[in-house]
Design goal:
Zincin-like; 8 strands; about 40% helix; elongated; disordered N terminus
């Protein structure tokens, strides 16, 4: 009877720096690799950053990813390095990373981080021209039977033209750009932006796999109920 030969499989664990080095060699096999410095930081969101300085590449990732599986860190490495070298992000890794962030437990973890670490700096809802609390209550009575609980409301500190309003579910805050708090801005414009953000409370973001739908079909249908929708949108174009 011949002795049984037992073969044990070796399991190798890569450090984050080793993952980035391997991905770099896969993307640029003919280029001498830089020195990678990868660290986890106490960010208030899922943002990650990468920069090149001489012969070194510095990567900073949220510590929410510290316990993420290696394939997720690998996917993020492909994404960040592709952006660093201005290459197209491979769809496979983009989808893998997005699916992970859209997992319910991961979204819950990130939500807690935003609540604990994030700060929401806003101005008083009583602006120089419009009072956001009064506008909210008018719309609440007109479109929601007065049943919507009022979140924290405030004007933005900066007069943003790109983001006229947004709802932050982590802090339960609606922020309206202070660009609209001017006499020359018709009230219907402020009402429409506020109504749009109120709908985000009524119809939350829909997460399915790697897909994140901010404006669901139900959201879009409800938005059509705004009485002066066409007029408000035309005025917004002029602004």
């Amino acid at each position: 009877m011949q002795p049984t030969t037992r073969i044990e499989s070796a399991i190798f664990f890569e450090t984050p720096s080793e993952i980035y080095l391997r991905v770099f060699r896969d993307m640029k096999p003919r280029t001498a690799p830089p020195h990678f410095k990868v660290e986890f930081r106490r960010f208030a969101n899922a943002n990650s950053f990468i920069r090149k300085e001489g012969d070194s590449v510095h990567v900073r990732m949220t510590d929410a990813l510290e316990s993420a599986p290696a394939p997720i860190l690998e996917a993020l490495a492909y994404i960040l390095l592709s952006k660093l070298f201005r290459l197209k992000v491979p769809g496979e890794f983009n989808q893998r990373y997005r699916r992970y962030l859209n997992r319910k437990e991961v979204r819950h973890q990130l939500e807690q981080l935003r609540q604990e670490r994030g700060r929401k700096l806003i101005e008083s809802p009583a602006g120089s021209t419009y009072n956001l609390e009064a506008i909210f209550e008018e719309l609440n009575f007109r479109y929601f039977f007065g049943l919507m609980a009022r979140p924290v409301l405030g004007w933005s500190r900066r007069a943003s033209r790109l983001t006229l309003g947004h709802y932050d579910p982590s802090h339960h805050v609606i922020v309206i750009s202070s660009l609209l708090d001017r006499p020359q801005v018709p009230k219907v414009v402020v009402e429409y932006v506020m109504f749009h953000e109120m709908l985000h409370l009524r119809y939350p973001v829909d997460h399915r796999g790697a897909r994140r739908c901010v404006h669901t079909p139900e959201f879009k249908q409800a938005e059509k109920q705004f009485e002066n929708l066409r007029e408000a949108r035309e005025l917004l174009k002029k602004l």
